[in-house]
Amino acid sequence: MLGILRQFVRALTGKVDALEFSLGILFGILLGLIPSTAVDPNAGLLGLNGLWLSLTFVLLLLRASIPICLLFLGLSKLLGILFLDQASFGLGQSLLDGALSQSMVESFATSIPSWQLHTYWGAGATAMALLISIPIFLLSYLVMRTKLPKWREGFGQTRIARILGGFFLFRIIGRLLA
Questions:
Q1: Which residues in the chain land under pLDDT 50?
Q2: Residues 6 or more apart from 148 whose CB is under 8 A from it?
Q3: What is the pTM assigned to this prediction?
Q4: Phi and psi, residue 48, nearest 5°
Q5: Domain containing 11: what range?
Q6: Angle at Cα 9 formed by Cα 163 and Cα 2, nearest 5°?
Q7: Is 109 inside any structural domain?
């Protein structure tokens, strides 16, 4: 719990680098669009989607920004519920019924059934998440790599940053993160 709070404070105080920030966006979109529960209840891992659990583990392993991930997870979950669920189902149906080979579909169902890639919604949501998240990740990384240091420097010289830096709480947070 303290690690999550520390990363949240790092994101707010500007101590997250561009790759951590962009990875947070990538995993937030992936985890938001991929169903977290098992679409096929007989094939789920403890009632959950194994791919979703695997991505969560990789998120923690790569040390992506958890606050940014949670923000984009919520936004993409809302976007998925409002607009993309039907599109994901249709994409999954066209992938599993026509675009992918029958042997690949059967291997999804037999080798990694907990990943839910053998279901229309699971396969479609995964493909949709990859199509959306990878370009946004690349774009955000390219922008943040060049712009983030300039933004931090500009923000550090503003009056509000100097005022906030004088508060007792922000001094304590600064010492904890140093």
A1: 1, 177-178
A2: 17, 18, 21
A3: 0.70
A4: -115, 165
A5: 2-148
A6: 140
A7: yes
